[in-house]
Specification:
heterodimer, A: alpha+beta, Rossmann fold, OB fold (Dihydrolipoamide Acetyltransferase, E2P), 6-stranded mixed sheet, 5-stranded antiparallel sheet, elongated, B: mainly alpha, MetI-like fold, 0% strand, globular
Chain lengths: 383, 278
């Protein structure tokens, strides 16, 4: 049980600042996710919490006590590595007993805890095997087992599922969620997979180039992203972006113009530089649902992906007369060119859309987010 | 065609291997044969003894000089090996895992020491050891053996340590190990093939060395077997000590063979498989 507090934590490597003055608190028992593109400093942050990296500046407290100058062995945290890092020369039992024997526990206590963990993780029949005789998923569970036997204050998981195949990843994801709820241990989980982030996290922190962009529940990040980067990073498929401009009290988009709520007009009107409008693929629909306010536009389906419960329709929008879209490069979302921008809609499969079909799409104006292209700030967010 | 090819290939490989093995083993067989001949038969121009006798072995073990030398050899080679492997593994681990300026320089300097011709330092060493009181003592041989074998040990071990995923050290540290515990309980067992390889190389160097042993010793206090053999005399002044030398050579070869066979079993490839994903 632990509350982790980071105050002004920075990490400098020669020639690069990996983490820049980060402040946040992870609550007791919380499942906290760190996401961001590769190289954003999320693993460095995790290593600083566990003590494998020194903190260049700032302090880390666990339950109010400073830990940033403690040796990793004195922090009582357990970590699961991306590579699992289970000891190949030890059996599964020895692997799980290793932290306990280092803590000089009695034989009976070690035996009790190992068999308990093995039961939770369904590893009983593999206890006497060496890691090389295990499958990827089993190795992953051994790594989890080695973490839980210690009954640590904090679990730290560094992309634990990224080496598993897709099906196993989904299965282990639910197992980790169940385990965390069962044990109630504060958990910090690093991932770049945002499905994991959305499904597992009580709260998510989005990091970019060492800076903390936004912390919030998955819902907050999805519905009220604070910046262009968070909007584009969270959600799969990614948010649709279009260049926009403010003209005659309306927001003009290449697909038509929409009215904004009164209290937001001033902010959009005062915005500097070009604007970018964003909306989620699931906020497009094939019917107006009787809402006359909705923006209606016609597109030609370019690619259609049918996933059973969902139908993704990819289409192009002509940008004639609008500025080119300048999205952050590290979002890796460059899916258009000077003349056209590629968008996607998630619609009801019953609509029966085929590739090459023309269809009418509807967009509710209150779903549209407006960003300043230069600063990336979300103008519609009342902060 | 394919069958003929593979048969031909096997024939070539078989013949080649047999040739190499015969080439390597003929001198060994010859020495064994010499050691088993009776003194009178030593010059009989036969490859194998007509009558096998153990008289030379008995003579060798009767000689107090030889048993003293055997004890010296075992002790000096054993201690040199142990010290070189322990120091070498610490040094190799530091070079592989720690970021400090001059890592490459240390490796290069170590290698240059190994390339240094030992004969060129014998003279100065002889004078220094006499002044320091190390002449004709165990440390007097252990120190040069370590000096010349440490580079080898460091190179071998650092190659093995480099193969061990860094995450394992980190995992051990998070699991509550001190740096030393992580090293001894996780890294060294995984680098065991490297540790044994280094040990064999160091042991063979120390065990077989003649140059340092003959120059830096004068009595049974520290004289090792290769040097002692040079002082063998026949049982009478008219007799060549060939038989005794052969017997002594066989006796000193046996430990090397045992050591290699013993350690070879530990040099198992793929010990680290299963550590990370894969």
């Amino acid at each position: 049980m632990a509350e982790i507090e980071l105050r002004g934590v920075s990490k400098r490597f020669p020639g690069i600042t990996a983490v820049k003055r980060v402040d946040f608190t992870i609550h007791d028992g919380e499942f906290f996710i760190l996401v961001g593109p590769s190289g954003c400093g999320k693993s460095t942050l995790l290593n600083m919490i566990v003590g494998l990296e020194d903190v260049s500046e700032g302090e880390i407290r666990v339950d109010g006590e400073r830990v940033d100058d403690l040796d990793p062995k004195d922090r009582n945290m357990a970590m699961v590595f991306q590579s699992y890092a289970i000891y190949p020369h030890m059996t599964v039992r020895e692997n799980m007993a290793f932290p306990l024997s280092l803590a000089r526990m009695s034989k009976q206590e070690i035996e009790r805890r190992v068999s308990q963990a093995a039961e939770i993780l369904q590893l009983q029949e593999f206890l006497d095997r060496k890691p090389r005789a295990l499958s990827g998923g089993q190795r992953q569970r051994v790594a989890m087992g080695r973490a839980i036997v210690r009954e640590p204050n904090v679990f730290l998981l560094d992309e634990p599922l990224s080496n598993l195949d897709a099906k196993l990843r989904v299965q282990m994801r639910t197992e980790i969620a169940r385990l965390q709820r069962q044990l109630g241990t504060t958990t910090v989980y690093v991932t770049h997979d945002q499905t994991e982030a959305m499904t597992l996290g009580d709260r998510i922190a989005v990091l970019r180039a060492g800076e903390m962009l936004q912390i919030g529940t998955p819902r907050e990040l999805y519905e009220r992203p604070g910046s262009l980067f968070v909007a584009g990073f969270i959600g799969s498929p990614a948010m649709n972006f279009l260049p926009a401009r403010w003209s005659e009290e309306r927001l003009e988009l290449p697909i038509g113009s929409i009215a904004l709520p009164e209290q937001l007009r001033a902010r959009v009107a005062d915005a500097e530089g070009p604007l970018i409008a964003g909306f989620r693929p699931d906020h497009l629909s094939v019917s107006s649902d009787g809402d006359s306010e909705r923006l209606q536009f016609e597109v030609e389906a370019d690619v259609v992906e049918w996933l059973g419960a969902d139908l993704f329709v990819y289409f192009d929008v002509e940008l004639e007369g609008f500025d080119n879209l300048a999205l952050p490069e590290d979002l890796e979302l460059e899916i258009g060119n000077r003349e056209r921008q590629s968008l996607v809609a998630r619609i009801d499969p019953a609509a029966g859309v085929q590739e090459g079909n023309r269809l009418k799409l509807y967009l509710a104006p209150d779903r549209v987010q407006v960003f300043e292209a230069d600063s990336g700030a979300n103008l519609l967010l009342d902060v | 065609m394919a069958v003929g090819d593979s048969r031909l290939e096997r024939l070539f490989w078989g013949a080649g291997s047999a040739l190499v093995v015969a080439y390597a083993l003929i001198p060994v067989v010859w020495i064994v044969s010499l050691s088993l001949k009776r003194s009178a038969d030593l010059g009989d121009n036969r490859f194998l003894p007509q009558v096998a006798s153990l008289e030379h072995y008995a003579a060798v073990f009767d000689d107090p000089q030889f048993s003293a030398a055997l004890w010296n050899s075992i002790g000096i080679a054993g201690i040199s090996t142990f010290a070189a492997v322990v120091l070498g593994s610490f040094a190799a681990y530091a070079i592989v895992r720690l970021q400090f300026p001059g890592r490459r320089l240390i490796l290069a300097a170590a290698l240059s020491i190994a390339m240094f011709p030992p004969v060129s330092i014998i003279g100065p060493l002889f004078n220094m050891w006499r002044t320091l009181g190390l002449y004709d003592t165990w440390p007097g041989l252990i120190i040069p053996y370590m000096t010349f074998t440490l580079p080898l040990a460091i190179w071998t071990l650092s190659a093995f340590f480099r193969e061990i995923p860094w995450d394992l050290d980190k995992a051990a540290r998070v699991d509550g190990a001190t740096p030393l515990q992580a090293f001894l309980r996780v890294i060294v067992p995984l680098a065991a093939p490297g540790v044994f390889t280094a040990a064999i190389l160091v042991f063979m160097f120390a065990w077989n060395d003649f140059l340092f042993a003959i120059s830096l010793t004068s009595t049974n206090d520290a004289r090792t077997v290769p040097a002692a053999i040079a002082f063998f005399t026949g049982s009478s002044r008219f007799e060549q000590p060939t038989g005794s030398i052969a017997a002594a050579s066989v006796v000193v070869t046996v430990p090397i063979i045992i050591v290699v066979l013993l350690f070879q079993r530990r040099i198992v490839a793929g010990l680290t498989s299963g550590a990370v994903k894969g």
